[in-house]
Every structure is written in C-alpha cells, then in structure tokens.
C-alpha cells in the first residue's frame, strides 16, 4: 500500500560518514516526524515538521539534521557527530498539528555501523 | 513533562484468556491517547484512539483520568493478537510513546 515510503531498508555507515535516510509520503499530510527505536526504549522523537520549510527538534536531535523543502519529503541526515547511530529509524506523518488524527508510519530503516 | 509508561515488557496469555495491557500517563492537560500495534513483519499501525471510543479487533481502551491510565483490554485473546503494542500520548504537535509491550498468545 502507499502512504509513507522509507528508503533504504538497510543502511551501513562508516565511521566519520554522514548518511541520509529518505522519507516520502503521498498522503498530503502537513506534519512529518522522525523517531529512533532502540530495544526496550520505545520510540524517541528526533525531529518533527509541521509545515514546509519549518522543523523543530525533538528529544534526541543531537547528531541529526533534517530538511523540509517539499511537503511530501522529510529526509533525515545522521551526521558523524551522532556517536551511537546504530538503531531502527521510523518516519511518520499526520494530517497536522492540533488535530486528533493519528500518525501513519513507514516500514523503517535499520542503520548499522561498519 | 509528558510521560507514557507501559510497565510490562512481555505479556503471555493462553488463547481465549482475557488480556489487559497497561498504560499509564503523566500529562497536565486533557490527553489524546492512542494504541498502536506492530504485527510481525508489518509496519506500526494505529489500533485505536480514546476519542473514538471504538472497539477494534475486539480490543477496547478506556481513559481513566483519575488513575491516569489507558489500559488496552480484550476479553478473549486470539493467537493473531500476538504483536508489539505501544501506547502513545499526543501533545498538540508531538507524540510520546511508551516502551511497548510484547503480547504473546499461546495456543
């Protein structure tokens, strides 16, 4: 089914390298989110964006960067400053802030360090 | 600060037994609460939300403001209910998730 597409499914990073995770949605949602999922810790918010050209830091933004140049796209860059990047990354979208609508999730990207 | 707590990492029940997955929250306003489910090899998806007061796949969840809880219940568990369940709280433009409970329904 459509909705939210994350790519790649698996990604490997070398020490000192930046990598970018892709997230695209065709739901016409205003809000988009990036989460990190670690075993036993649930989902932790990295960054979120309510509208195009605007984004806010979440609880664990250090070592990450994002952009929101288009409504349908919200790429996440894991920089070399992120010292423990190995995790499962989930992208989500929702209709918009202030609504009682839930989030829709992608399939995730698993990032590992070589 | 907003917090969502799911005290059980793993819950095992037999098929046909009642099941209750616990969720407690800490929030200073009127919460918007959700239950999400992730079946094996599938993406995380919405199960139900408190504002809808609905029953999905036999599951219900009642918001108890006095106890600040939003426990997920089903009277008769089925094997296909085995999955990872997450409780989530929405605060205007951010979602806070619990650490999840893995439900294992044994035959």
Description:
The complex is a heterodimer of chains A (114) and B (107). With 114 residues, chain A is mainly beta. Chain A contains no helices and 11 strands. Chain A has strands at 4-7, 10-13, 19-25, 31-38, 42-49, 56-57, 64-66, 76-78, 87-94, 104-105, 109-113. Chain A is globular, with a radius of gyration of 13 Å. Chain B has 107 residues and is mostly beta strands. In chain B, a hairpin with a 6-residue loop joins strand 5 and strand 6 (45-49). Chain A binds chain B through residues 31, 33, 35, 40-45, 48, 50, 56, 58, 90, 92, 97-98, 100, 102-108, and chain B through 4, 6, 9, 32, 34, 36, 43-46, 49, 51, 86, 90, 92-100.
Helical content of chain B stands at under 10%
Average pLDDT score of chain B: 91
Tally of DSSP helical segments of chain A: 0
Extended strand count of chain A: 11
What fraction of residues of chain B sit in β-strands?
A: over 45%
- The percentage helix of chain A is under 10%
